Amino acid sequence: MRILDLVGNTPLLELNNIGASAPGVRLSAKAEFCNPSGSVKDRAAKAMLLDGMQRGALTLGRGIIDATSGNTGIAYAMLGAAVGYAVTLYMPANTGAVRKGIISRFGAAIVETDPLEGSDGAYLAAAAAVAKHPDRWFYPDQYNNPANPLAHYESTGPEIWRQSERQVTHFVACMGTSGTFVGVSRRLKEHNPRIHCAAVQPDSPFHGIEGTKHMDSTIRPGIFDARLADAVITVSTEQAYAMTRRLAVEEGILAGVSSGCNVHAALTLAETLPPGSSVVTVLCDSGNRYIFDPFWGERQ
């Protein structure tokens, strides 16, 4: 068995304590922090790298390069080390020190970009580097690579359908690249067109929900398919922080802020639904990589 073989097949956890305010509604979440690098991004990173190798685009002598806000970069770094390719990652300079440290421990190189330009600035800088030396790099381009949502269409979606015993009625997921939302929603709607899929985003362009995009104020990912969104739920940074703390103390789940964002949105929706409904969301990553962030010490 290889580290690549450990990606996927994560458990679906029931959030019974947090979900108590929605009686009769099943609230559950995919524990994507159980992937080997600790996040949902392992799925897309693995799919994009294997696709590049199969197409002959990723060959010996080429390095892997992409822009990231953290989690996909960690996944690239881990998988690059496992399959023997050098990895260079463009990321905002204000990305958390823990995430940078994990990437460095896997031997990947980091190029910091203007923090005021956020993930868009990192994306543009990586694309410029590739354009300057196209023969040097394999550029997965996670925001526009169809292998990203396809990974979730082929793995995460079927897992949710099976683990929910085909009872899922609503799917809720925040959007960064939008790969998870698009791939899972597309697959679930094939199983049952009546499944309601809600896309989640920050309520403001200026937010602290790491790994998510406010779609109207940023470069929209090419893989995003707005037709799959039956609703859009907005979440404030404060709401995401509060739910992240609740996950730890009420469910024993140490997860990241995007997970708190997802669960807040899923609970908000669940509280409006009739008994018998089943709402599924995603715990995107482990809280270990945010452990020194100051929001943990804020009042409950």
Q: Would you kindly provide a written description of the structure presented here, covering whatever features stand out?
A:
It is a single chain. With 300 residues, the protein is of the alpha/beta class. It has 2 domains: 3-35 and 156-297, Rossmann fold, CATH 3.40.50.1100; 41-138, Rossmann fold (3-Layer(aba) Sandwich), CATH 3.40.50.1100. The chain contains 8 helices and 10 strands. The strands form 2 sheets. Strands 1-2-10-7-8-9 form a 6-stranded mixed β-sheet. The protein has a 4-stranded parallel β-sheet with strand order 5-4-3-6, with helices on both faces. Helix 7 crosses helix 8 (257-270). The N and C termini lie far apart (43 Å).
Notable traits:
300 residues, alpha/beta, Rossmann fold, 2 domains, 6-stranded mixed beta sheet, 4-stranded parallel beta sheet, 8 helices, globular
